[in-house]
Amino acid sequence: xxxxxxxxxxxxxxNLEKRFTGWVDVDLTEKGILEAQKAGNLIKEQxxxxxxxxxxxxxxxxxxxxxxxxxxxxxxxxxxxxxxNERHYGALTGLNKEEMSKKLGKDKVYQLRRSWxxxxxxxxxxxxxxxxxxxxxxxxxxKNIPDTESLKDTYLRVSNYYELKIKNNLKKGNVLISAHxxxxxxxxxxxxxxxxxxxxxxxxxxGNPLLVELNENEKIKNCKYLDKDRSKDLVVF
Length: 237
Hints:
Number of strands: 6
Largest sheet: 6 strands, mixed
Order of helices and strands: EHHEHEHHHEHHEE
Helix content: 25-40%
Strand order of the largest sheet: 3-2-4-1-5-6
Distance between the termini: 19 Å
Shape: globular
């Protein structure tokens, strides 16, 4: 038996401003810091020894994981991978979600945010928000830097990395991943075998650890959010 813990980063500055963030590298708000600290304390109460830690390349996920590790009195190094980055929102990046709903209509924005294979228009490569113009992505192969992504695109990179790295490590110890709303949605689709209709409705709360228990056959035995007051429907049980 092994445990996989998934955490969406605490509230970020652009979450607060209701902006499409994607691959832009913003940090946590004061509320986000408190959410991450609480997440660490909730994990500590489970008395689970974590052997492998992962985050995306993005500051909000990295700092969430650092705060969690501080709560756990854990100083172990962790692996940062671009495959767990947030979905790239293309030309929507930096725009306000409510303003775009008024401009394009709520249904259109909902489709762009939630649908399986719809992509926003590509982000101009000259934009300061384009990943190729952000220093932290210099280590990412150019062919893997997107101009825009659908959830399907995010799913492919997340699930491929899970298959290559995470599955094997889960056989040797417990794993914690600090990532983002859409990269965790993508991983949940893979783990829980959700269909395209179910994934549309799946919400991932900030800073609330999702504890997934797997049996010796790598099948999900149980799962739960550790902060019960901020749980979301998992649509799988």
